[in-house]
Amino acid sequence: MSILSPWQQNRRLIPRWRTFAETLLDGELASAQKKDEGYKSSSSDFLRRLKNWRLSPDLITAAELVEASIVEGRESEALDAARRLVLTEHNATPAIRRQAASLLKRNGVKLEASNDPCLRFPNGPLRERCKLSINIYDSLAWVDLAFRQTLTGRSSGAMRSMLVALGLSPDNRHVLRSAARLFIHLGDPERAHDILLRSSATKFDPWLLSAEISVSELASRTPKTVKAGLGLLEGGKFNLHQTSELTGALATLEIHGNRKKLRRFFRLSMQAPTGNSLAQGSLGFSNYWN
Q1: Could you give the CA distance from residue 227 to residue 204 in angstroms, rounded to a whole number?
Q2: What is the spatial distance between Cα 109 and Cα 53, in angstroms, rounded to a whole number?
Q3: Which helix (H) or strand (E) holds 32?
Q4: Which of 6, 45, 196, 214 has the most Cβ atoms closer than 10 angstroms to its Cβ?
Q5: Which of 77, 94, 115 is the last residue before a domain boundary?
Q6: Does 11 map to a domain?
Q7: Does some domain include residue 9?
Q8: Counting beta carbons within 10 angstroms of the beta carbon of residue 74, is it exposed (0 to 12), middle (13 to 18) or buried (19 or more)?
Q9: Is the model's pLDDT at 4 over the cut of 80?
Q10: So what's the pLDDT on residue 120?
């Protein structure tokens, strides 16, 4: 086991766990975008989806357009599609409807009424169970149910719900980071680490790479994806917000190592930070900058 400073023992960049809607609003679920060529290629994809929606407005084309508009930052062009998903498409999964509703809310669109049958329940396990009664294969709803169960002290139920979500979506970023956070909360960081290592998505996703590096420290293990994380950063293909937690995690590894690397990684993590990397970077600067 490595010898850690008091600050390092008390603060690591482990994944935050919030509801799907809150995580989406923070931009954590957007596709990692290439800095130079990504906008051109994804813009062509966005225009294709916009064309498909206009030619054949249905559930599939609406959902694809809403998703692309969030990634592209062109949400104003998907308002009609989002309205349809919220008010008309009864077969849309709860996750798709929540994504569309969040888009409308961010753009100041107020709906007169919603036909979501689950709104009659207050936020909590009952609402999440209602969503699952509509679509039992909605892994994101299972994650939200686990979150609500954790808040109400039902740890065993939360673990069962999370295992269902993992079975349905074993490579989904939100599911994996939430599962890791749950098992850390349950005092089992080794299982949290194993979950991240088992996924084939981890070595290609900056959000999962940062989680693996940080969780490995809690599990008193050597991180397995440092080389992959450094290669991803050196490739320069992803925007700074998408890699802010990865650079913060790499900086934390250098607390007892290369001070030059520590400073460089903390600088990068603070350029377009998440709330998590901002807290980590601020502590890093105050404790290790001199």
Answers
A1: 12
A2: 20
A3: none
A4: 214
A5: 115
A6: no
A7: no
A8: middle
A9: no
A10: 63
- Tell me the C-alpha distance between 127 and 196, whole Å: 28
Co-location of 47 and 110 in the same domain: yes
Query: Do the Cβ atoms of 66 and 78 come closer than 8 Å?
Result: yes
Per-residue pLDDT reduced to its tens digit, 123-177: 677 777 776 766 677 787 889 899 999 999 999 999 999 999 999 889 888 999 9
Report yes or no: 191 and 162 within 8 Å, Cβ to Cβ. Answer: no
Tokens linked to 126? 């009952």
Q: Model's pTM, two decimal places?
A: 0.67
The number of beta carbons lying within 10 Å of the beta carbon of residue 267 is: 13
Q: E-strand spans in the chain?
A: none
Question: Counting beta carbons within 10 angstroms of the beta carbon of residue 283, is it exposed (0 to 12), middle (13 to 18) or buried (19 or more)?
Answer: middle
pLDDT tens readout for residues 27-68? 676 655 554 443 333 467 788 888 888 888 888 888 889 988
Domain limits for position 200: 188-290
Query: CB–CB of 247/233 below 8 Å?
Result: yes
Contact predicate 34/237, CB 8 Å: yes
* Model confidence pLDDT, tens digit, residues 243-285: 888 988 888 887 766 677 777 888 887 887 777 777 766 665 5
Six-digit token string for 142: 């299972």
Taking each helix axis from N to C end, the angle separating 139-151 and 155-168, rounded to the nearest 10 degrees, works out to: 170
CA angle 277, 101, 164 (to 5 degrees): 70
What's residue 5's pLDDT? 45
C-alpha 137/C-alpha 146 separation (Å) is 15
Q: In whole angstroms, give the CA distance from residue 98 to residue 87.
A: 12
Q: Which residues contact 193 (CB under 8 A, 6 or more apart)?
A: 180, 212, 215, 216, 218, 219, 221
